[in-house]
């Protein structure tokens, strides 16, 4: 299948996904194969939370919405342009996905197929509904995908390279099992926000999205604040008050109640507002419904810390530095924003 045909198929998928957004679900009669697929997608969106309690309709639609923004011909053309994928030597690439947020493995799935290779997908049990459905839609758009997409629930075999995502514990297993194959193996990472003390209420509100989208379960979710010495947290708490509706989800409320009890029994000093706890802690990975914070004395010390800890960080949110992600955009990566900073297309091009 030619590169442009692959791009056209994924651009058409973007048009299809554009019917599902946080503003609502609305059928567009001009979308190809809508009669066969629209209701199927609606059903899976409605049922997602039954299989994974964190996959609320809002979070699923947010994921669809972000992918719809990325899957357009111009963005896809620009993304693949620097790479030599016109006539690839077809390889079979195993993709082992995580299940922390909806469609978390889609970028790897897309990367393999857009480059003309074959993908073998082993999904997490926590997110196994949407990729097969998307695959069916791609097959309807272009039957040439038929021999390029496989799913397995068994031990992966018959592959030339692997892209695997998991926890630090599973990564050790992956590294041992796949050591003889070309591989990308991703571990736990977290994201931080750098505050200077001069943020507007609007900026702090959008920081709330970086913290609370997907209930903080994504690697791009802010799990820690780096704040100047003497920082006043009151403006931050005031700005994020609209997110108190998180407590309407029982799973979130249970985590908040449990973690608060653990902290109080351990006599940790906490700042909290009824749905989020702040704890001073040097670690990066904070539990659900809590956020760690750490003070910095000056910009030089801050940048030194971020540089030293870069291997633990997915992205840094804030303002003032070119590499900082703007407030509210941590969960809106572009096609070239690679997880762990590893260029997936470059890895594939070297196989």
Task: Walk me through what this model shows.
The protein is α/β, with parallel strands linked by helices and 351 residues long. The protein has 2 domains: 3-188, 3-Layer(aba) Sandwich (Aldehyde Dehydrogenase, Chain A, domain 1), CATH 3.40.605; 190-317, Aldehyde Dehydrogenase, Chain A, domain 2, CATH 3.40.309.10. 39% of the residues lie in helices and 16% in strands. The chain contains 12 helices and 13 strands. The protein has helices at residues 3-17, 34-51, 57-70, 73-80, 106-114, 130-141, 168-177, 201-212, 234-239, 250-265, 299-308, 344-349; strands at 20-21, 24-25, 92-96, 118-122, 149-151, 161-165, 183-186, 190-194, 222-228, 270-272, 277-280, 290-296, 313-317. The protein has a 6-stranded mixed sheet with strand order 10-11-12-9-8-13, with helices on both faces. Strands 5-4-3-6-7 form a 5-stranded parallel sheet, sandwiched between helices. β1 (20-21) and β2 form a beta hairpin. The protein is globular, with a radius of gyration of 21 Å. The mean pLDDT is 96.
CATH architecture of the largest domain: 3-Layer(aba) Sandwich
CATH topological fold name of the largest domain = Aldehyde Dehydrogenase, Chain A, domain 1
Taking all Cα atoms into account, the compactness measure Rg is: 21 Å
Residue fraction in strands:
15-25%
- The CATH class of the largest domain: Alpha Beta
Would you identify the CATH H-level superfamily of the largest domain?
Aldehyde Dehydrogenase, Chain A, domain 1
Task: Output mean pLDDT.
Answer: 96
SSE sequence, one letter per element: HEEHHHEHEHEEHEEHEHHEEEHEH
Helix and strand content put the structural class at alpha/beta
The number of E-state strands comes to 13
Largest sheet: 6 strands, mixed
Distance between the termini: 19 Å
The side-by-side strand order for the widest beta sheet comes to 10-11-12-9-8-13
Tally the helices: what do you get? Answer: 12
Shape verdict = globular
Contiguous uncertain segments of 5+ residues = none
Helix content, binned percent:
25-40%
Whole-number tally of structural domains: 2
